[in-house]
Every structure is written in C-alpha cells, then in structure tokens.
Amino acid sequence: MKRAIQIVLLLVIIGLGYAVYRSINEPIEYEEQFQKRSKAVVNRLKLIRDAQVAYKTINDKYTGSFDTLIDFVKNGKLKMLRMEGSLSDSLLAAGMTEREAIKLGIIKRDTVYIPVKDSICKNFNPDSLRRVPFVDAEFEMGATTLTSSSNLQIPVFEARVANKVYLKGLDDQQRINKDNLAKQLGRYPGLKVGSLEEANNNAGNWE
Q: What's the CA dihedral at 25, 30, 31, 37 to 10 degrees?
C-alpha cells in the first residue's frame, strides 16, 4: 500500500512539474512562432507594396486585383533613365550645365526598360504574392481613389490579413488577447499596409 502511495505521489509530482514547465515555456514558444510568422507576413506585404507602387508609376492608379498585380509583375516593364558620363570639376568650374554636357555628348542619357520581376521579385515566385505565409489563405486587397479637401484625387490601396488568419494553429487565447488590445487602441487586429480610408503614404501598421 505504501509503495502504491509513493508511486502515485511521484506521478503527481511529475505532473505538477510538467504543468509548471508548460506554463513557463508555452508563452515563450508562442512568442517565437508569433515573431516568425509576423516577420514573414510583413516581408510579403512589403513586396505587395513595391509591386503596387511600380504598377502606379505605369497606370497612375493602384489595383485591387491580385490577378492584375501578379500579371503586371510577371510581364510588365519599368522605364528607367540611364545616364553615362559626368561633369568634371573643371567643367563645373567653367560653368557648364548638365544640359550643355548632354548636347556635347559628354553625358549620355538613354531610356531603358527593365522587367518588373527583375526589379521587385528577384528569386520570388510572383504567383505567391497573394498567399499568406504559413497558412492556407490569401491577403485581402483593395484600391480606390480619395478626394482631398482641395478636391485632389488621391489613389490609395490596402492589403491586410487578420491575426486570426495568419496566426491560425497557435494558441487562441494569446491571439484573442492581441485582438482585444488592438481594438482597445483603435487599431486593426492584424497586419496591413496602406489604407482605403486615408492617404498614409502606403505605410504599414508595423512601422
């Protein structure tokens, strides 16, 4: 009987020890996974922003369609101005301007076109631009035009993913706590870049 009690007590001690270990270790493990996922999502949102900015330079607006944006990244080209040569100190001292140097052939300017993919998505599959890392989900994205107080038309876009989407599979209570804090602060409970409600220079809410 005594032996049985000792075994039961030993098992209780082991169980309590494991419970204490988990109570300490689980928040640490969650934070590690949270940081890992958040970093990957932010990097993807930055790529989306770069693609949208490039798209706007050609089309004077943003797009709310990932199909359109991905096709642009795959097949679009950006106009770049290439300049060869420069004004020496002596020419500058003599008062020569850049325009004069171009006329004389000292400086050459050429317009070249480079693939968007080579500029923005090197070593990255553009088809994955819409995909949220670590989970089977897509980013939400939209685009519109806002009117300023001076009646200026301002194109804007927004791409985002909620905490409950990109943190799926991790501790739910931890995620709920983050959501509640974001709501108390009047912030979006997730990660996003740009805004459909204000012109914020395409800032990310992590910045």
A: 150
